[in-house]
């Protein structure tokens, strides 16, 4: 009984901290909170969390009482918490599905031109199927289809299978997308053959992942009962290791191109300016460093980091504080688009393609603008005696 009491007290303390944090943020930003749907949702969430902490406190301290003939016990704390967990998890899955569809819709012209785009579309479709299935099972609670009995247990079963599957897909998708970018660079319009190859690759990736979960991994469907009791779906995902590798590469690039970055940072106090969503930076380019070394790598690094800086900071925070994220939520379209931009930049620098060629390509990236001007190699050929030149770096989303 002491263990149960301590557990309830820990839950109550965590909910209290969350409710206090919600109210503090809303109070400090009240002038903005009532001006959008997100603000209204934040207010409703804070109100519900406050109701929860009050209900749990009353039930916990009174322990055993009756209201209008309805007997209230400490069991109802777990019942209310279970209902809240179901609802919040369903909301999280719905928000993820909506986010995936929004990103794909805004970048549709780029999504169907690469393997990564095809995988993003398939992921968004499967997430949408999941949220529909989970909602139907959750609200109908107990029903039968073709003689097969469906209960709320199957939500946990399907979610656990999806979690195991998603947790092992980060590195395979990253490697296949990297090979696709390498083999198809410079990018050209998608042919029917490549579409067939992408479709076959998608089927192979998903089938292989599911087969691995059922026949090779330590997955056990009977563990879904224990998972259902503890509400935990946290597994060791590949996302952390992949994120660590990407951040390590970005750090090495920044250190290697530190002279170019220092010149760029100095330009903030110079004639650089920002107009709308377009940023223009003027800085001195040392042509003696060579086209095959720092100048073009500096272009690529600034373009990538300038576009994805908030996402890079988010990944850094997750790694530094060892934040646990459900693998089902970790594999999402924004994360895959981030990896896609990283791969395109890496492949472009590795192959040392002429910048003029990129202007005629259909680059499958809706976030980074990979068209740079001027070309350091062309400047060096046009003016052999020139050792440095002032260039303009334009960043547009």
Automatic annotation (TrEMBL):
Keywords: Membrane, Receptor, Transmembrane, Transmembrane helix
Record's keyword annotation contains Mitochondrion: no
Transmembrane regions listed in the UniProt entry: 12-30, 37-54, 60-81, 93-110, 116-136, 143-162, 168-185, 197-215, 235-257, 296-321, 333-351
One GO CC term, this protein: receptor complex
Name of this chain's protein: Putative G-protein coupled receptor 160
